[in-house]
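New to this. Help decode the following:
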Amino acid sequence: MASRLTEISLDCHDPDLLADFWCGVLGWEVVHREPGLVEISPARVEDQALLDAVRSGPVPPTIFLAKVDEPKVVKNRAHFDVSPVDVPQEEEVERILALGATRADVGQTGEESWTVLADPEGNEFCVLRSLAPGHFSL
């Protein structure tokens, strides 16, 4: 038996702000909220059903957004990659920018197939090529 990836934690100054942003990007929802901590997930699942699913195979991890006082100082050591599923990459980048992202420079050359953005607190992430029909082929 192996362990399962069940949660990803992201330190931030404003968990509510980032929860709104990432829910907008991913089409997820807030499943738990308490002062200084917000959990987001693709869908709310009852505890027993989630436990059964995790025990039987991989499930999408939830994201915990935890309030910290320390500022982000350097490029992230780990980051999210997102893939548009129903629109071209450029259209998805514009949608995410409208949600509050900014363009980020982490040393890319301009030849990359992905676009680097940063969430409202400066955490870098990439928008990969589109998986939409007509934009992706094997």
User: Anything to note?
Assistant: The helical segments are 15-26, 47-56, 89-99. Residues 15-26 form the longest helix (12 residues). The first strand starts at residue 7 and ends at 12. The radius of gyration is 16 Å.
